[in-house]
Amino acid sequence: MTLSFLASLTAKRQETLKAFLVFLAREGRFPTGQELAGTMGINPDSVWYRLRALSREGLVSRKGGVYTLTEKGLATVQALGSSVWKDDEEVQKALRLLGYGGAAEDKR
Predict the structure, then answer these.
(1) Rounded to an integer, what distance in angstroms lies between the CA atom of residue 36 and that of residue 47?
(2) Per-residue model confidence (pLDDT) at position 43
(3) Residue 47's CB: how many other CB atoms inside 10 A?
(4) HSE-up of 38 (CA within 13 Å, CB side)?
(5) For the segment 27-47, what is each residue's pLDDT rounded down to a tens digit?
(6) Is the pLDDT of residue 102 over 60?
(7) Confidence band of 1 (pLDDT split at 50, 70, 90)
(8) pTM of the predicted protein model
(9) CA-CA-CA-CA dihedral for 29, 78, 53, 42, to nearest 10
(10) Which residues contact 65 (CB under 8 A, 6 or more apart)?
(11) Distance from C-alpha of 51 to C-alpha of 55, rounded to nearest angstrom
């Protein structure tokens, strides 16, 4: 994952990815757009707009109404989880669920 790609992610897209991980940590599964809207506390149309943008960037995909992380999305959240979000317990829990245990410790 290049630093330039991470830097190019808008704050809203980073917020959406983080909410995605928070939902995963709380529920133990990937969210639907409606569920993600509830987690974020914003309008579902806004969430779907952001999810479409993340999909165009190749970070998420939709299967049967549920959004999942692609390989590029997994690499992105791992990179963000070991840097920007390293102190967020829910993000770290989600990364462990995804098989990236100790993501924050890797950078210390």
Answers:
(1) 7
(2) 95
(3) 23
(4) 8
(5) 999 999 999 999 999 999 999
(6) no
(7) low
(8) 0.85
(9) 60
(10) 32, 33
(11) 6
Q: What is the mean pLDDT of the chain?
A: 89
Distances (CA, A) of 95 to 44, 71, 101: 25, 13, 6
DSSP conformation class of 43: -
Question: How far apart (Å, rounded) are the C-alpha atoms in residues 46 and 33?
Answer: 10
Question: Side chain identity at 2, as an amino acid letter?
Answer: T
Q: What is the CA radius of gyration of the chain?
A: 13
CA distance 18 to 59: 13
**DSSP letter (8 states) at residue 31:** P
